[in-house]
Design goal:
disordered N terminus, Helix Hairpins, 3 domains, 49% helix, alpha/beta, seven-stranded mixed sheet, Heat Shock Protein 90, single chain, 11 helices, 414 residues, Rossmann fold
Length: 414
Amino acid sequence: MAGDSNFTFVRKRGVVTPNVETMLGQSLKVLLIEDNKAEARLLQELLKDSPTKPFYLDRVQRLADGLRLLEAHQGDRGNGYDVILLDLTLPDSAGLESLRPLLQLAPDLPIVVLTNTNDDALAIEAVRQGAQDYLVKRHINTDVLVRSLCYAIERKRVAEELRQANADLELKIKERSRQLAKAEELQHQQSEFVSMLSHDFRNPLNTILNSAGLLQAGDLQLSEEKKLRLFQLIQVASKDMNRLLDEVLLVGQGDAGRLVFNPAPLALKPFFAHLLDEARVSANEYHTLVLLGLECDREVLADKVLLRHICSNLLSNAIKYSPQGGQIDLEVGFEGQFTIEIRDRGMGIPPKDLRALFEPFHRAGNVENIPGTGLGLTIAKSCVQAHGGEITVESEVGVGTTFAIAFPLQFAPA
């Protein structure tokens, strides 16, 4: 390091006594960047006469040396500096250009600039650029110097606290704004949901009313086949309405953390056979449903009601978003876990929608013209989690989608 060695002073009973070890723990540590040896010695003597604060002083002659010294002490609070005294006329830098690299390297350190010129405009500009104070050398005495250094440290501390408080406030404002935006979006989605739910309720209700009206009309000569078909329409419509009510109830229970999980022995072959029979009513002749991998005859422990909601929602989506003639595979596995995969060759899900796919009311951007409440996948995920399982999705637009569910495998006692 260029320049004088360290200067250390301790005031004790009115006598100035060198004591480096004591000062390292108690003194204010000053980095003096000053190339003039005589002026540096004067500043040393002024600090030596301080009646209130002991000082530990490091002096360098060049800005580059000061930067190296600061860099060496970065992150070391025990040996770091409390304040910088900076001469504005140095061999390797001049004027306020010296401030910028110091502020970049040590933004938390207060800086007091020293100059031979009593220039108010320069003083104001120095403070504007980041210095805490400005001293004219020929006007400096012990009181002025000590007060300037102590005030600079305190101003920097207060400014940093204010900056941190403003940063914290800004974060809180951003978070609150995000919450308000989310609440507004949720309110909008709930309004849309009520509208969609009303629409979805009205369709099966109209089916029931129309079919019941035809059956009630005595003047119509209906064949037994026609009557049976009307009764089937009423039955399917009633199940659709019941499913919608169940979905609303499940969403409410899931949001409140009150989703009931009742595991019991479940025979999978008849369960999936009945599930596919129901799905084929919706799929009719335009889709092919295939069951794979169900060779196991044992019963598993599962909640039949929740498992039905999971599979029926996923199958319903696969049918809804698949083209005519599309094949849908439902595959069951038992290798370490109880797994279910439902694959379609449908329209697929855009990548940007995958992350929010299981959020309430969220629907992919490419299904806007297809009716739906945006709750099916939310319900499926809640039901999977109630089993202690996990649901994942892989999809490619124009190729198809695969939903994979994995549960802890628990066979019922034989």
